[in-house]
Amino acid sequence: MRMFGFLRGERSASGRRADAEPPSEKLDLLTGAALVALSGSVITLMAQTIHVAGAGTTLPAVSAGLVAGSLVLFRQWRKSVQLSRTSAARSQYLLNHDVVTQLPNLTGVVALLDDQRRRAIANKEDPTFGAIVCVGLTRLQDIYDNLGHDCGDAVLVEISKRLQGVFDDIDRVARVGEDVFAIVVGSLTKAKLAVLSGQLNRLMDMPVATPAGTVVIGSAVGVSFPDADCADPREAIRQARLALSAARNARAAVAFFEPEFDQSSKLRLELARELRAALVGGGLNMVYQPQVNEKGDLVGVEALMRWSSETRGEVPPSVFVPIGEQAGLGEAMGLFALGAAFRDSKRWSGLKVAVNVSPIQLKSAEFVPAVKRLLEHHQVKAQDFELEITEGILLDPDPVATASLDALRAMGFAIALDDFGTGYSSLGYLSQFEVDKIKIDRSFVVNLGVRPDATAIIKAITDLSDALGVKVLAEGVENGTQLRMLRGEGCKLAQGFYVGVPASADVIDAALKRPDVAMAA
């Protein structure tokens, strides 16, 4: 390695032996020799035939013509062989290399490591291939989606150059996934690899110039230490990628592979498979949490998804929603929630129904047309619904998501900003994006009556909402003290277990018919 002088790997030879002629080349030479011999036999046979016929005077001219024809045929055969070899070499290159960065791909690096291991065993050397470091790029997909393929490819090329500038031929750099690079390094201690990982993250954090301007990509690192029993390079890379996933899930800079990562990964795969079956087979259902005004009247409900697994019991949304999104089920789950809320809302005249909408849904060009179809199918009006979005959409606006929000507002949906105060709240964001309601996060509500500054924070948020002309609702209200203090600071709408627990549509029906029936826990 050129940059990190104290980190050295084990050098080993690579590539095909120079004295080993490929079998295909031997076959080509034998075929050519056979063609020449066949041409000679044809010439001899024809000469004998012409001589017998008494045309000996024409033999030299005929022989010369046959020889010339044979040479032309031989040259054409040689050109065909050369073209075939070039095409085969190109195909083999593409099979083992990434077309954007020209680095080895997963197939290529596995072949190199397999070859290295075989030669080490033949030479009675250590067959292990050192540590595997996987570098995952954080925002690559966003760059492709928002800035285009030219910019995404430019980022990949620049990152590959940076990695190749750090690691020399002692190490191997490969692109093993859409946004993942793998580096095979020598046998290093965990402490040195931790330092290396930190330096790699800093290297990835440096701005990258693209045709659309400078971008910052960000990264996470996963590391595995395959032992002598790990004969499959794919398994070693898989372990490093599991460690990378663990780092990403924990929002950490680096993670080292642990055996429990494997069990966790298998469990997530099982849950994703079961969740997919539940989504198709009717295993998901909706509950609705009441929202009340300053008089205690039920004025709205928030639709919440629940999954009661036949084998695992109640699976918390905090568990199955992220798993579903990572498994590509985010859009389907979101449309299921909207469809169920549309259907149930027809039972509650005058009640506003709030439904969470994820960034995944908003970034899909098919989302708005799908919502229109659901409205028509259930014969409901958009004005009866409120779509809740998170602050992250405001922080890093996506053109498709912004267009989706504008279209949904034009259709008549109200827009609520959920978990206000936990992310990047500012008057600037709220002035750029029109919202109808702010939902104060429960983390602020829980401090009411506990911390003296809690009321000041609530007061600031309610003043902000008044200035913007939007409604404000407090989430997570768990006792009467909190509710009284919220109302004292001008927050008229509330939601939480003290107000009402999430309940089935039938329970909401009963609450509307008999307002005196308590719904709180």
What's the total number of strands? Answer: 16
Principal-axis shape equals: elongated
How would a crystallographer describe the biggest sheet?
Answer: 9 strands, mixed
Sheet-strand content, in percent, reads 15-25%
Count the helices. How many? Answer: 19
Helix content: 40-55%
Alpha-beta content class: alpha/beta
Which stretches are low in confidence, meaning pLDDT under 50 for 5 or more residues running? 1-27, 52-57
How confident is the prediction overall: mean pLDDT?
A: 81
Rg on CA atoms, Å: 34 Å
Ends apart, CA distance between termini:
62 Å
What do these coordinates show?
It is built from 19 helices and 16 strands. It has helices spanning 23-52, 59-96, 106-122, 140-147, 149-166, 190-205, 233-249, 259-281, 317-326, 330-345, 359-362, 367-378, 392-395, 399-411, 427-432, 442-445, 454-468, 480-488, 505-513; strands at 131-137, 172-177, 180-185, 208-210, 213-215, 219-224, 254-256, 284-292, 298-309, 313-315, 352-356, 385-389, 414-420, 437-440, 471-474, 493-494. Strands 8, 9, 10, 11, 12, 13, 14, 15 and 16 form a nine-stranded mixed β-sheet that branches. A five-stranded mixed β-sheet has the order 2-3-1-6-7, with helices on both faces.
